[in-house]
Amino acid sequence: MSIITPGIGLIFWTTLFFLIVLFVLAKKVFPAISTALKDREDSITKALSQAEEAKKEVANLKADIETAKKEARAEREEILKDAQAQGKKMIAEAQEAAKVEADRMIEEARNAIEADKRAAMAEIKGQVAELSLEIAEKVVRQSLKADDAQKQLVKELLA
């Protein structure tokens, strides 16, 4: 038997052992490997589908977040507009109230001035009347010193 050409017995027994090992592998090992590969394929498929679902969910969440941002911006703008409108309204009301108060105070001041003016005029009239009476009294006393003038005045008054 040489190294290069094996003998028939060696070929027979090698082939027989190979077929036995192949048969055992086909009955016991290959189904287990096949099952493991199938399970692995199923888990990979399941993981891929879950990844797709997660990707879709992330896209939906991004869309929801963007919508919420837009709504928040719109709400913020609305709140700012309302605040500005209320501020303008409050300023206008304060200006109107200040104008009304100023007009009232001006009217009160005019009335007070008018009352003071009337009081001063009445006082001046009283003083003028008093001075006029004093002057008239002095004039009448001087003109009535003469008897003829007194008689003449009495006649005029009686007439």
List the helices and strands and how they pair.
Elements: H1 8-143, H2 147-158
Task: Describe it.
With 159 residues, the chain is mainly α. It has one domain (8-158). The protein is built from two helices and no strands. It has helices at residues 8-143, 147-158. The chain is rod-shaped and about 200 Å long.
Instruction: Give the averaged pLDDT, no decimals.
Output: 88
Which structural class fits the helix and strand makeup? mainly alpha
Radius of gyration: 64 Å
> Domains counted in the coordinates: how many?
1
Shape: rod-shaped
What's the quaternary structure here?
single chain
Q: Helical segment tally? A: 2
Counting DSSP E segments of at least 2 residues, the number of strands comes to 0
Q: What is the makeup of the main sheet?
A: none
Order of helices and strands: HH
Low-confidence stretches: none
Please estimate the helix content: over 70%
Q: How much of the sequence is in beta strands?
A: under 5%
Span from first to last CA? 196 Å
Notable characteristics:
159 residues, mainly alpha, 2 helices, 93% helix
In a nutshell, what does this entry contain?
By secondary structure, this protein is mainly α. 93% of the residues lie in helices and 0% in strands. It has one domain.
